[in-house]
Design a protein that fits this description.
91 residues; flat; mainly alpha
């Protein structure tokens, strides 16, 4: 999404800080080093936004758009949508 041609140490550090900052006090108390997997979508969104913002600050990748980093990430996220399957009736 960022279209960055390289990832600086600052981008990597910003992503790591966002990940570490996503761990709640409850998760830390439970001994978790990373956020719970049930929060994967929320946390990956947060990290992606930080990466986009940092690459923009550094002037890497694509030119900034009118949309915010959060909007771009939300629009790009995949959502599992499965059709409801109903067994055919025997005739």
């Amino acid at each position: 999404m960022a279209g960055a041609d390289w990832i600086s140490d600052e981008v990597f550090s910003a992503a790591a800080a966002a990940l570490a900052g996503a761990v709640t006090d409850e998760e830390l108390a439970a001994g978790l080093l990373y956020p719970a997997v049930g929060r994967l979508r929320e946390v990956t969104h947060r990290v992606a936004v930080v990466v986009l913002e940092q690459t923009a600050r550094e002037g890497h990748g694509r030119a900034p758009e009118r949309r915010t980093a959060a909007e771009k990430v939300t629009d790009a996220m995949w959502t599992a949508e499965y059709p409801e399957l109903v067994a055919a009736r025997k005739r």
